[in-house]
Amino acid sequence: MRLVYVIVFLVGVAAILSDHLTSPSIGRAISPQDFAGACAPCGAPCPSKK
Amino acid sequence: MRCAIQIARAAIRAVGVLLLLATGAPAQDVARTDPLVSVEWLQAHLRAPGLVVLDIRSAIDGGSAETYAQGHIPGAIHSDYDKAGWRATRNGLPYMLPGIAQLEKLIGELGIDETNDVVVVPAGVSATDFGSAARTYWTLKVAGVRKVSILDGGSAAWTAAKLPLESGVNTLSPTIFEANLDRSLIAEAADVEHIIATGAGTLVDARPPPFFQGKVKADAAQAYGHIPGALNIDSTAFYDETINRLRPKAELAAVAARIPPRGPVVSYCNTGHWSATDWFVLAELLGRKDVKVYYGSMVDWVSVPSRPVASSRTKWDDIKKFFGKGS
Amino acid sequence: MTIAATTTLAPATARRDWLFLTGAVLATALLVALVLIDGQPASAALLVLGFGLGAAFLKAEFSFTASWRRFLVHGEAGGLLVILLLIALTAVAVVPVAASWPHYGGSIAPLGPSLVIGAFVFGVGMQLANGCGSGTLYTVGGGSGRMLITLACFIVGSVLGSMSLPPFLRMGGLDPVLASDYFGPWGGLAVTLASIAAVALVIVVIARRRGAPLSTRGSFIAGALVIAALMIGVFFAGGHPWSVTFGYTVWGGKLAMLAGADLSQFEFWQWPGPKHALSDSLLGDTASLTNLGMIFGAMAAAAFSAPFAHRPWPPLRSLAAAAIGGMLMGWGARLGFGCNIGAFVGGVASGSLHGWIWFLAALGGCTIGIKCRPWFGLSRD
């Protein structure tokens, strides 16, 4: 069990890092307004609220 | 009084043409100058009435008013491309097209009006320096000066041809210049948004590939990358730095071949300097219709955070920059 | 056997598991550093708040699943009442601020078959898995191998749910009903608190009728107070109430893309929120940040006082329940617009009617799930 967790932990952290470091950047902070129209928290557009 | 001067000029020009024709000289009508002229052509037409040789050396090419004064093409006047006001800060954004009043003052104080033939003379030392000439050319055309040319090879070519240089400073008496803005050469952000939304047109990014990819950016720009959908046609690809001339027309056409043959083109870069070269090649040399310069370029485009930007930059690039190992 | 029980080792001296304690703290610190380099202090706050939530949930053994089951099977309402207290405390911040401040919003969802079916299926899954969205996080952080399986299946189910959501939404339904729309920020809060009180009253009546005790552990109440404070912090840092399951959906989406799937053909992944979340770093997604913080916080808290992940694997039947439960929760949460945290607590604390409908439908699902537990060797209470 412990070994499973060590592996999962390391793989998980590696995956997070690689996802983050390869993700696109335009060198400026992204604001929530960039996702205008999203209905928090699932991202689905609300039927009457846009 | 001004009218009388114009009539006198036209009369002298007519006499000049007759004399040229009479002497059997090549029929290069001053009234129809090519966008790009050679050193030989300029030597032959140096004293043509109405011709203004505009030396634009500035810090961008390592020159200045002093280098002009030390040696310049005979009869040339000088305007510092970087400092004289060819580009202005507007809405906090640097290097933009100046307002009409400022253009009229700048051009008029040089003694240029819409009847002159202006030959823009860059230093002739690099592709970027050629861009200064292209941007000056574009600005003059936008302001309504109809007849403009660039000296291929600039001052360096004149000197290399061992042609005589003059020292000192020439000026023309200031004139009242009324700008006649040619909007067909200007693109604004709305035009770019239209192209993105409809696909009706091509965006041409004139910057070197690292800017396009988002690896580096202009200091004044707030984001890295390019306008989505743009083609990267580096302005330096049009220029042969070994001889400091633009490439032959066939090669220019080959570089530009990636652009769809028909349809509007908007050329941009960081602040409309390099993009003026792309515009010059496409519109003035290759004869393409409907080419505009988005002079605001990336610095203007990314000043509004909601506008889309495409790039291949990653957060890893950001981390490298944070630790001083990148840009 | 339920995992609500803490370690049975319980010695007088704490036996710290330094490997996992430092690992969890370092991992969190690394992620905090990355988001700070990125110029996102709010994201750093979400990681740290998540870390606190993980520790709080673990130390308090704050299980929605067990509380609901105790109420449904025995009528013991103490846990459920404390959960309602948690919601009420959170509502005090969320309802007025979401209605008045720009850049802040509540958890809102339309009322239709998607909500009801999703919540019901979630309820079934929750009782098979022995944990809900948050429960999965803190038990995984706490070292449960069984819940690792639940988490994996939750992620898979989430992606399947993302494909089902648009067609289910097209079945129709009513627009969201938000208290502050009708009664203003403070009127909306009053109505929300009144609704919570009314439901609490009904629960008390049911409990009394079944002759069951109302009391609960002090640690559960203390946990609720700490969690409420942290949840309010998450709301202010993230701009919307704490959400868990969207994070799983994003993780699943990214894994699917890595495996070569083309998600762009699915409508869900064309919506602006999911589309950006898929292409951007997962450290740009608020739910992922709190989820990761929570796992590491629970891990640190667990490793602080006992050897980590020392329990043996439960029998295969139990693992099957974990897997099936996880899948049902993943799928159900996407249709139902969240889990206990996102839809129930988030929805009710936002003054959205969908929170109560979710609650009822999920309770219904729980009764079915509880009935199925013995098939997998799980106790009925």
Topology record:
The complex is a heterotrimer of chains A (50), B (327) and C (381).
Chain A: H1 2-21
Chain B: H1 2-23, E1 36-37, H2 39-45, E2 51-55, H3 65-70, E3 77-78, E4 88-90, E5 93-96, H4 100-110, E6 117-121, H5 127-143, E7 147-151, H6 154-160, E8 186-187, H7 189-198, E9 202-205, H8 209-213, E10 231-232, E11 239-240, E12 245-246, H9 249-255, E13 265-268, H10 274-285, E14 291-294, H11 297-301, H12 315-322
Parallel strand pairs in B: 1-7, 2-3, 2-6, 6-7, 8-14, 9-10, 9-13, 13-14
Antiparallel strand pairs in B: 4-5, 11-12
Chain C: H1 18-37, H2 41-60, H3 64-74, H4 78-100, H5 113-129, H6 133-142, H7 145-169, H8 179-209, H9 218-238, H10 245-258, H11 272-279, H12 286-305, H13 316-335, H14 340-349, H15 354-372
Helix pairs in contact in C: 1-2, 1-12, 2-6, 2-9, 2-12, 3-4, 3-15, 4-8, 4-9, 4-14, 5-13, 5-15, 6-7, 6-12, 7-10, 7-13, 10-11, 10-12, 14-15
Descriptive account of the structure:
- The complex is a heterotrimer of chains A (50), B (327) and C (381).
- Chain A contains one helix and no strands.
- With 50 residues, chain A is mostly helical.
- About 20% of the residues of chain A have low confidence.
- Chain B is α/β, with parallel strands linked by helices and 327 residues long.
- Chain B is built from twelve helices and 14 strands.
- In chain B, the strands form four sheets. Chain B has a five-stranded parallel beta sheet with strand order 1-7-6-2-3.
- In chain B, helix 5 packs across helix 10.
- Helices cover 71% and strands 0% of the residues of chain C.
- In chain C, helix 5 packs antiparallel against helix 13.
- The relative contact order of chain C is 0.24.
- The chains are: A mainly alpha (50), B alpha/beta (327), C mainly alpha (381).
- Chains A and C meet through helix 1 of A and helix 1, helix 7, helix 10, helix 11 and helix 12 of C.
Unreliable residue stretches of chain B = 24-31
Say what oligomer this is. Answer: heterotrimer
Overall morphology of chain B? globular
Order of helices and strands of chain B: HEHEHEEEHEHEHEHEHEEEHEHEHH
Number of helices of chain A: 1
Q: Number of helical runs of chain B?
A: 12
Number of domains of chain B: 2
CATH superfamily of the largest domain in chain B: Rhodanese-like domain
Measured by residues with Cβ under 8 Å of the partner chain's Cβ, the largest interface is: A-C, 34 and 60 residues
Largest sheet of chain B: 5 strands, parallel
> Ends of chain A: how far apart?
47 Å
Low-confidence segments of chain A, ≥5 residues, pLDDT <50? 31-40
How far apart are the termini of chain B? 58 Å
Calculate Rg of chain A over CA atoms.
17 Å
